[in-house]
From TrEMBL:
This is Metal-binding protein. It comes from Candidatus Rhodobacter oscarellae. InterPro entries: DUF1636 (IPR012863), Thioredoxin-like_sf (IPR036249). The lineage of its organism: Bacteria, Pseudomonadati, Pseudomonadota, Alphaproteobacteria, Rhodobacterales. Pfam families: DUF1636.
Amino acid sequence: MQDEPALLSVCTTCRDGREKDTGARGGSRLAKAIHARLDELIAAGATLRGVTCMSQCKRPCIVSLCQDERFTYVFGDLDPERPEHIDALLDLVARYKEAPEGFLGRTDRPEPLRANILGRFPPTRSASLLVTHLDPIAAE
């Protein structure tokens, strides 16, 4: 499973407020910036896809990273004009691929992504200590 590529999804319709100046939506520009480094992304262990709206309009630009039987991460407030955000995403993929179940604590993530996390979701059959089974509540 670890040899299969992870999937980095980019919301291509995110607006970052610079559409008038740039002629393109922030999400589209972010996708292009990542795509320009596609060889590095593939070498780190991921593939890239665009998604038309990831429903996080208050925190654009949005990406998610997932893989079967591994944690899923969602990050927002990424800036397509900041190369350190693209560098951090490439670094994130490499760290994700090495971590058991893809679990990355705050300090395990690249610095530019620590404050940008919007969600971390465990795989369905996770062995992580973060996941606890909740017994059905008994009827009173």
